Amino acid sequence: MKEVRILEIKQSVYADNDRQADLLRQELKEKGVFLLNLMSSPGSGKTTTLMRTIEALKGTLKIGVMEADIDSDVDAKTISESGARVIQLHTGGMCHLDAEMTRQGLKGLDTKDVELAILENVGNLVCPAEFDTGASKNAMILSVPEGDDKPLKYPLMFSICDVVLINKTDVLPYFDFDMDRCREYIHMRNPKAKIIPTCAKTGEGISEWTDWLREEVRRWQLQ
Fold first, then answer.
1. What is the pTM of this model?
2. CA angle 64, 67, 73 (to 5 degrees)
3. Which of 66, 17, 2, 40 has the alpha carbon at shortest distance from 167?
4. pLDDT at 144 over 80
5. 126 in helix, strand or coil?
6. Is-contact 158 189, C-beta < 8 A?
7. pLDDT of residue 218
8. Which residues are paired to 38 by β-bridges?
């Protein structure tokens, strides 16, 4: 049998992106801009949650939003109704943003007067988790209809997130979703993750979420 050549990869294929992400994070730190990377599956309620978030933080933080999608400008048009600065990013078929793409987005957004920049990443639970965008913090939304077992199926996504919003709690009576079990699964992947049950439709949990976000921005600015 012919001998097979084995190549051992000693350096992460993501190493260059990681360097770019660290550089971007430092640049944003010097400018006083807090970058939040918000991820989730399609239909989890990211845009509605963002609208609630902007409304709750209006007057206390200057906010800019980058809406990333493969195509369309539907979400950006929705966010523009909030009065926040917004830009639509088209990824050209890519299912995620990396650090360089995020840098381009921030340049287009113009963060001169922005304290909190929010990246609404492309909707899926795989690719966005693999690329460091240079964000100050990572957040994700898990909606009740998706099921409480998602942390078991998508471990990387839950392991990199600082906070998890469990959204659409208003439909809990209609789905086989165990909140305690979901919390347990999330903490199996990430013991430090903060978990906040929310309902973007009714406003449940939004104040706890925005309090957390406001405090993280304050800490970032003081460091």
1. 0.92
2. 120
3. 40
4. yes
5. coil
6. yes
7. 95
8. 120, 139
- 167: exposed, middle or buried (C-beta count within 10 Å: 0-12, 13-18, 19+)? buried
The Cα 220–Cα 40 span in angstroms is 24
From CA 185, how far away is CA 14, in angstroms rounded?
Answer: 27
Contacts of 171-174 with CB under 8 Å at 24 or more apart are 171/144, 171/145, 172/144
CB 134 within 8 Å of CB 31 = no
Is residue 13 pLDDT above 90, yes or no?
no
Count of H-run helices and E-run strands, the chain: 9, 7
**Is residue 186 a contact partner of residue 151, using CB atoms and an 8 Å limit?**
yes
Amino acid at site 101? M
Task: Report how far residue 99's alpha carbon sits from residue 128's, in angstroms, rounded to the nearest whole number.
Answer: 11
The closest alpha carbon to 104, from 16, 36, 29, 20, belongs to: 20
CA 126 to chain centre: 13
- Strand positions, DSSP E, 46-171: 63-69, 85-90, 116-120, 137-143, 163-167
DSSP 145-187: GG-TTHHHH-HHHHHH-SEEEEE-GGGGGGS---HHHHHHHHH
Cβ neighbour number for residue 147 with a 10 Å cutoff: 16
CB atoms within 10 A of CB 143: 25
Digit-coded pLDDT (tens) for 175-208: 999 999 999 999 999 999 999 999 999 999 999 9
Name the residue among 116, 152, 113, 128 with its Cα closest to residue 42: 128
